Amino acid sequence: MENTEKKQPLVQVKNLCKYFEISRKETLKAVDDLTFDIYKGETVSLVGESGCGKSTTGRTMIKLYNPTSGNVYYDGKDIFKYNHAEQKEFCKKVQMIFQNPYSSLNPRMTVKDIVGEGLKQHGMSTKDADAKVEQLLATVGLNKDHMSRFPHEFSGGQRQRIGIARALSVDPEFIICDEPISALDVSIQAQVINMLKELQEERGLTYLFIAHDLSVVKYISDRVVVMYLGTMVETAETDELYAHPMHPYTQALLSAIPEADPNKAKANQRIPIKGEIPSPINPKNCCRFAERCQHATERCFKEMPQMKEIAPGHKVACHLVEDK
Ligand code: SF4
């Protein structure tokens, strides 16, 4: 991506928090003070273990949830302060591809109705919508005969293609891809990823790609944001992050990527992470990774590390790095 394109972010997430009140005394801090930008035409990946808040972040960014605090700006405007007309425009510009192609498609609707629903909501006639659905199905490798069928008649990969066609139907600029391949067979995953990349090039799309598989993330992203238990722990351009991971959690995640070359696999030392991801309910105000980190010191259990920029665009929240 050209630097000139990087002046104004398309999406700005600023100090975003999304808490869920479980009871009077218990608060689940699913997203806690997240700040990152996404520039036009790039893919930013949000990675971390299940339950780290990645999907809640995506859902808040598309207004499926209201934030507890913080802001999300789209093209410079706060999406939570839109008037009716701006909200309608936002619904066209921003779309989501959901994780589970089995549950995200209404089983009682035909493919024609699923893909064409958004078009009709935005005022397109049935005739034009049908023609566009046919075109969209061709774009994702399906055909006209599929229009009258129901979701259960398709494989997982084909259902995800229908989900992608639905997202593309209103010609969006920005798509949040929420673990779009994790429910698919490995053999199908590459096809869907390649299709997303091709569509991005053809249509100049911008993606937020939510994933836990770091080998896929390397292939598709320009930049990566690593989350742990609701907080952001590291962000950098993809090549920089994979070459010089600084946060102990990122280092452990990267060390767990399977290596195809047996010689390299032998040389690579897997960094173990102790225990399970802790509960995000009433987390302590200290490093959230402290209980599982092999470098933790007393300070890590007392004080929350702050984000520090250690190289252009490479930021890390870790006391080890702060002290260097
Ligand atoms: Fe580990 Fe401490 Fe860094 Fe947290 S702040 S990642 S516990 S070294």
TrEMBL record:
It comes from the Bacteria. SUPFAM superfamilies: P-loop containing nucleoside triphosphate hydrolases. The keyword ATP-binding applies. One of its GO terms (molecular function) is ATP binding. It comes from Coprococcus comes. Keywords: ATP-binding, Nucleotide-binding, Transport. Residues 11-254 form the ABC transporter domain. InterPro entries: AAA+_ATPase, ABC_transp_ATP-bind, ABC_transporter-like_ATP-bd, ABC_transporter-like_CS, Oligopep_ABC_C, P-loop_NTPase. One of its GO terms (biological process) is peptide transport. This is ABC transporter ATP-binding protein. Belongs to the ABC transporter superfamily. Coiled coil: none annotated.
